[in-house]
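hey can u check if this looks right to u? its 422 residues, i copy pasted from the old doc so theres a chance i mangled smth
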Amino acid sequence: MDSRLHNNDNDDNHVDHVLHDFLALSDLPSLSLSLSLSLDRLLQSSASLSDGDHLVDRAFTMGSILLEVAKHSYRNRASVHNSLTWPLPPDLTMKVFSLVDTSSLCHAAATCKLFRNWAKDPFCYSHIDLRTPVPKVNDALVATIIHRAGKALRSLMLGVVPDATTSSGSCQPLSDTRRKCYSCGHKRSQKDSCHLTRCCLNPLNADGGALGALLRKLHLYNIGPMDSPSLVETLDVELGCILSSVSANCHLIERFAFAASTTGRNEILNIQTCSHLVAGCPHLTSLSLRGIRIHDYKVRILVKGFQKLKYLDFSRSVSITGSFLRNLGNSNGGNFLEFLNLRDCMHLKEMEVARLLTAIIAGNFKSLVHLDISNREGLGLRTDRQHTCYSSSIMPVKEVLDTRPWMRLMVDYPSDRSNRDP
């Protein structure tokens, strides 16, 4: 045994000396040329072609090993340096890390071991925001982040959102795999793609659904038709199943948003889904379903059912006419609305908008401070959905602003739509 240990020590010393001498070569003024010539001489002296190939393979292997060892040593030294020079105590460092955005936290975790250990604390991932202007997020990253959050998870936002240089009416496709994915410090296979699939929310089922049960906010932006509701083990692809899963598993949720990638999705909500959502999520204060097909009577079920609802966004809807607003402003649900967005609803009718404004003047919708009824296509006629119009004579905009000067009222319409289209 002693002889074996002695031999190991000798081997280690030999490697140390060889590595020391090899690294000393870096001081040569033309190291690259010298190594290239040296390797050529070794190849020429090889007994056979296969021996030469083997020699080249060993050169590649040694180069890769030396590179990985150097990176590892660099990270270790950075960790030691950071631990000696980092001015904040651990508890304050955790607080700082918990305040930065998720992508910055991922980058910090990849910096050194010291930061990686701090950045793994679940408290740092209570509010996960993985929205990006271009696809950079995949299922593996989402799963890693959710598991790091554990039972501390309170909000989750996923999807593609336009940046300042992208027009508001367009967005990069979610399935674009040419972008570089966030790594978050974990190894990623070259086969991993930079887009979300049906499995992106499956980690919320962990621990018997405990993670989903603690969610307060769930936002999904520019999501195309996913082939799974994610929160349940079925293969249905529609938003209706996602909402059913939310109503069954996320009873504490307060804010839910879903923005479809394109306008004109098939109708996906039935009365039962709406009723279950109302019964299962009594604490909901913010509901946003953009760019989907849902009829007024179903919207009315949602608005009247959520007693604490303050924020409502059905912009880009392809079915809403506005009839759900009738006699709503003086009832539970509608009377607590503070924000209402009906921008660019395809079939929003002029008469229903006029009724809404008249109800506001009469004192209904007392809590409403933001109303957006703008439409780039104009408003629909009372009986004809195919034509649009805008007549200021029946739209008491000025009277509303005189009655409530503090209200933010957005009524932008195309200037050439003042009369009925031919």
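The first strand starts at residue 127 and ends at 132.
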